Amino acid sequence: MEISSKENTQFFSYNPVLPVDRSSCKSESSASKDTQPCCGGIKVFLGALSFVYFAKALSGSYLKSTITQIERRFDIPSSLVGVIDGSFEIGNLLIIILVSYFGAKLHRPRIIGAGCLIMSAGTFLIAMPQFFMGRYRYERFTSTINSTASISPCLQDKSQTPLSSLEKSQAKVNAGCEKEAGSSMWVYVLLGNLLRGIGETPIQPLGITYIDDYAIEENAALYIGCVQTVAIIGPIFGFLLGSLCAKLYVDIGFVDLESVTITHKDVQWVGAWWLGYLIAGVISVLAGIPFWFLPKHLPKPERRKDSSTSSEQSKFITEDNKDQHKFYQQQVKITEMAKGKPLNLFGNPVYILYLCASIIQFNSLIGMVTYKPKYIEQQYGQTSSKTNFVIGLINIPAVGFGIFSGGLIMKKFRINVLGAAKLSLGSSFFGYLLLLSLFAMGCENSDVAGLTVSYHGTKQVTDYEHALFSECNSGCACSKTDWDPICGENGVTYVSACLAGCHASNGSGKNTVFFNCSCVGTLESPSQSSSAVVGPCQKGNECPKMFLYFLVISVITSYTLSVGGTPGYILLLRCIKPHLKSFALGIYTLAIRVLAGVPAPVYFGVAIDTTCLKWGSKRCGGRGACRLYDSSALRYVYLGLTLMLGTVSIFFSVAVLWVLRKRSSSHDENLSTNGESGTCGTKSRKDNFVNSDHLIQTTYWPEKETRL
């Protein structure tokens, strides 16, 4: 979302080394060549900046891939995870104005290098809790951990209660339970992500303006396009790294993996989430090293030495004040720039309507992307590893191809402003229409006794806390807060072996088998007790097929929504007066970050939390992370909220198109009478529109790396 930072820098600052005549330019250029003979080329800077874009995109997407892992590791709800995710935007907002204004006057490459160090420090800080909060503890019955001795899960005699249950008993809480070392460690993850946002701030505005200042005009757009292309590759590797780390146990290297009694398919499994942050941090450090050896200024290209302004800057200067341009370039008065601008800008109905449409649409997209891994895991019973692999290898390339296609369509068919509005609207309409079909591609709830079905096989309608207990387990001293699921031979999952009424067990670890389970036999043959194995039962037979359908529609939807990104941004640029573009883009970026990037993950998380059926319990009391969601409710809340916001944004887009059509009609009437053309005329010359540098340079739209 840093697209406007480049133009903010150009608008609010002047170039202190801009040559007054050719002789001074040559001396400046020769001085630069003498001081930087080996690493002063623009291509070296381009390569370094591309690597930085890769690094920041990788770390950002890796955070998205570890949302569920962080939630389980720190035993926190989705709403709190949303706050952690939004802290990146807050960090970026803290210094974006300072960087945009003062950055161009300082040593831009070194500021970018410093930003990389700060970004890496934040990434390392996110991983630090793993080394201070002790080993991860999951809920398991004692016999599945320590020995092969047969211990009755049905605790009829309280002296038989395992240590793990005693630790959670009220007696221990009353005796004074010391807080776990990791109870508030999630704060370090939040602070680390905040620091990431601060460090990432100078990369976009200062890097792009540096290229634009010192590259040949014909090559500038190509260079910037290369950088943005690399930014698409970063998230692919970020999610693939998340897939790899999710398969590794969280305490790998610290515990004997043979003693781990859960697999990566278990809902309590936590992968080595911290390992990816260490890798991303090292990559960020390496990416920042070259910038410390790059010069503050590069030699101006020969064909740009003779002009006192670049063609890009001239687009912001109207014909009436070209004579005053030199004075304006050397001394900029903030009060004069700000005078009348808010009124002029906010009086533009196209800008206001498009801004509202973008804010609402980005709320929809950011919320959808943030919790997409969780949705796939809970709805289709997929592991975190497989979920991240699918997103990284299928969804993100579709987004990149969609953005490219949007720009290609604009250039191929020489589409004007009105056509861009139609293409953007059509992309959103068909994208959300495809998303609507996902309501029919969900999986039913797993049969969990006492939660989704009763112990007698009927659908659950009563309060689950009371429904967990039945006649079949009434003689057992069970806890309703435990979550140690087992799968009965009848295909029903039970919250714990105790609540399943199991009286005996055999084996240890992952191979534990429970016998004489009185509740397991009540569905088909009440008189006969049955057995059960460790872990929840798999989803229904139709679920894998539904997941395949979901992937196909998801990829098509990602592509369709992405096609409208470039036309929409071109529409924004073309309907603003030239001297207001920088200010307008700054307001646009600020509004997207404040009103979409920060709140969307939070209220999406709050909504998702309402669909939880079984909450985990912290060791010393208090509600932990959700263990089981209502699949149907989750589908309606997640997709419904996304579609509701998307529909509202479409109405605003329709209003934009209506205003443009109205202006187009008025413009045609003016042309027929006096031949004059308006500022935002949709019949502007197509050649100028297509060949404009902005068409290529602004194909980047906010957070495109993670728009899935």
Name the descriptors.
708 residues, Growth Hormone, Chain: A, 3 domains, 5-stranded antiparallel β-sheet, two-stranded antiparallel ribbon, disordered N terminus, disordered C terminus, ion transport
Would you kindly provide a written description of the structure presented here, covering whatever features stand out?
- It contains 29 helices and seven strands.
- By secondary structure, the chain is mainly α.
- It folds into three domains: 40-139 and 183-293, Growth Hormone, Chain: A; 352-444 and 542-659, Growth Hormone, Chain: A (Up-down Bundle); 445-538, no CATH class.
- Helix 1 (5-12) packs parallel to helix 5 (78-102) and helix 6 packs antiparallel against helix 12.
- The longest helix has 43 residues, at 631-673.
- The chain is globular, with a radius of gyration of 29 Å.
- Mean pLDDT is 78; it is low at 1-40, 144-149, 156-179, 307-334 and 676-708.
